[in-house]
Design goal:
2 domains, disordered C terminus, diguanylate cyclase, 10 helices, GGDEF_dom, Nucleotide_cyclase, 345 residues, alpha+beta, Alpha-Beta Plaits, binds guanosine-5'-triphosphate, seven-stranded antiparallel sheet
Length: 345
């Protein structure tokens, strides 16, 4: 009981999804005496259902986060037919028996009709009913707490991450920027990220949005923001982070991408907005400024550089994306001092 209470206190003391994932995996590993526990994201990409590990812990080890990287689409759900059938039937759990009464247990976290997260418990011995009962309780607390965190981290109009969570997420990305990839002895198949891959920050602003509000009213303006948020979510990958920064301004943190791919992804989003028919309003466009993250620069300077590139895009025709370093290299922008920010509202 003491052990359970200790884990509950630890889990509910966090205000961060990653720490919560680490806590729940440590709790379940200890309670189930598991050989391995993984927290998995259930995602779909290109019509395929995928599993992406978020956190993992082995027996006697420390829980650690699994950092996503470009090219890591995820593990195909089809490789785990028991879990696939469980998700299709909206069932509470799936199991694959192993030797000596051990096996693998999957516990999807259902929120209504959706399960975005699943716990995977590899246990060498049978799980007693009492243990199963305790784990089910821990998983329910985890799900409720995840919900609460989601609520406090999200913008109520668009459902995107809010400004408040940006600083944390940027600090986390900056920490992993320029840091050497940890060696993973238990995952020898893991591909190392390409040397050209960087992390990127893009600031996106709706063009002439005031005109939309003035002509069609705020309700239609709000609808445009919601539709743009949807286009953002479908254009960027699950491990990128998309924020509504306020008003008609959005920020994206793009993980591990080459400059060429960052251009492609950002252009794909910009052209998808341009091609979208917004009910009543018709065509809407966006301008984008983006910059590579560098651990040696303070967040305010990085944001300032992306803002400068956005300002350039606004001043030079709108409906375009501009890359800060390229503008500086071409002499079109002056490299700004680190405490510079550009205001255009
Ligand atoms: N409907 C709606 N409008 C908002 C919201 N937040 C800010 N706005 C409006 O967004 C508009 C921003 O206008 P401006 O800053 O002048 O910029 P703009 O018209 O987009 O022009 P450029 O950025 O120069 O292309 C203002 O009219 C704000 O009232 C919101 O949540 N909903």
């Amino acid at each position: 009981m003491d052990c359970l209470l200790k884990h509950m206190v630890d889990m509910t003391g966090h205000r961060d999804h990653h720490m919560l994932d680490l806590s729940v995996s440590a709790a379940v590993q200890e309670l189930a005496a598991a050989a391995r526990v993984r927290v998995l994201t259930l995602a779909s990409s290109g019509g395929k259902q995928l599993l992406r590990p978020r956190a993992v812990i082995g027996a006697g080890g420390q829980a650690r986060l699994e950092e996503p990287y470009e090219g890591a689409a995820g593990e195909p759900l089809a490789a785990l037919p028991e879990l696939q059938a469980c998700l299709a039937a909206r069932a509470a759990s799936a199991a694959r028996p192993g030797p000596d009464g051990g096996g693998i247990l999957w516990l999807p976290l259902w929120i209504g009709e959706r399960a975005d997260t699943c716990l995977e418990i590899t246990h060498p011995a049978p799980l007693l009913d009492a243990t199963m009962h305790t784990i089910a309780g821990v998983v329910s607390v985890y799900r409720n707490f995840q919900n609460l965190l989601d609520y406090s981290e999200r913008d109520s109009l668009t459902g995107l991450l809010n400004r408040k969570t940006f600083d944390d997420q940027l600090a986390r990305m900056l920490q992993s920027t320029d840091a050497p990839e940890p060696s993973l002895p238990d995952r020898p198949e893991r591909r190392q990220p390409h040397a050209d891959q960087r992390q990127w920050l893009a600031v996106i602003d709706v063009d002439h949005f005031k005109r939309v509000n003035d002509r069609f009213g705020h309700l239609y303006g709000d609808e445009v923001l919601i539709l743009i948020a949807n286009l953002l979510q479908s254009s960027f990958r699950a491990h990128d982070r998309v924020f509504r920064f306020g008003g008609e301004e959005f920020v994206v943190l793009l993980r591990s991408s080459t400059l060429e791919n960052a251009w492609k992804i950002i252009e794909r989003f910009r052209t998808s907005v341009e091609a979208h028919h917004f009910p009543q309003v018709g065509q809407v466009t966006v301008s984008v400024g983006f910059v590579a993250l560098s651990a040696s620069e303070p967040p305010v300077a990085i944001l300032g550089h992306a803002d400068q590139a956005l300002y350039y895009a606004k001043a030079n025709g709108r409906n375009r994306a501009c890359h800060y370093e390229q503008l500086v290299a071409e002499g079109l922008l002056q490299a700004a001092a680190s405490n510079d920010t550009v205001e255009f509202f």
